[in-house]
Structures are given as structure tokens and as C-alpha cells.
Amino acid sequence: MKLKLMASLFLLTACFTAFCQEKQNAALAEKGLIKISVLYPYAEGKTFNMEYYETKHMPMVAAYLGANLVKYTIEKGLADAIPNQPLPFMVIGTFYVKSLKAYQAAIGPNRDAIRADIPKYTDIIPVIFVSEVVN
Fold first, then answer.
1. Residues 57 and 115 placed together within one structural domain of the fold
2. Rounded to 5 degrees, what angle do the CA atoms 94, 98, 104 make?
3. What CATH code is carried by the domain that includes residue 111?
4. How many other C-beta atoms are found inside a 10 Å radius of the C-beta of residue 26?
């Protein structure tokens, strides 16, 4: 019985250590990546179809990016930092890629298709911010 308990404890410790190492590696992997943030500013009366954005638009753009894409995220705005103020952004879509040059090469020929898809989920003109993850 004592041997089984020790083996279980060892296995649990090994799994926890592996999990911590994986988290640390993931954090390190983001440093140096190119981050493309697509921000949809809040404005009274504007609409946004989150289901379409999640299930159609973002996967479509991700497919264009191919192996250069590390991951993408979607954030839905909830509130401003100051109470009783309007949201600064309704939604922010973010792509993390390895290479800006490869990103531009993938998006360039597909720009018209991407732009044509926007009215299917929103009437907001997005703001695009390209940056490098430094920490």
C-alpha cells in the first residue's frame, strides 16, 4: 500500500513538473512573435455577430496564414476600466505569427476576400495594430 502511495505521489509530481515546464515554454515562445491585433471600436448603434466571427471569419483568416500562425485569440469587450464609461472596443481579434513578411505575403492576395467578409458580421471599421511581443 505504501509503495502504491509513493508511486502515485511520484506520478503526480512528474505531471505537475511537466505542466509547469510546458507553461514556461509557451510563455517563452510568445516573446519575439508578431502580434496582429484587429480592434473593433465601440460605437452606439453598431452591431457585431460574434458567432459568425468565431466560426467563419477568424478560421478563414487563420487558414490563409497557414504554418506561420502560432495561435489566435478573440476577446469580447465587457467594460471600460472606468465605471459608467462606454467600452473602448467591442471585440479584439489577435493573430500571433512567426514572421511579419510571411503574414503580409499571405494576407496581400487575400485582402479583398477578407474585407468582403467583414459586412457579414459587423458594420464597424476595424483598426489594425501590428506589434512585436517583447515580454
1. yes
2. 75
3. 3.30.70.100
4. 11
Is the CB of residue 77 less than 8 Å from the CB of residue 117? Answer: no
**pLDDT tens digits for range 43-102:** 999 999 999 999 999 999 999 999 999 999 999 999 999 999 999 999 999 999 999 999
- 34-41 and 89-97 as β-strands: parallel, antiparallel, unpaired? antiparallel
d(CA 107, CA 58): 13
Specify the number of domains making up the chain: 2
Residue 124 DSSP class? P
Residues 11 and 43 grouped into a single domain: no
pTM above 0.70, yes or no: yes
Q: Map grid coordinates 510546458 to a residue.
A: 22
Residue 111 structural domain: 32-132
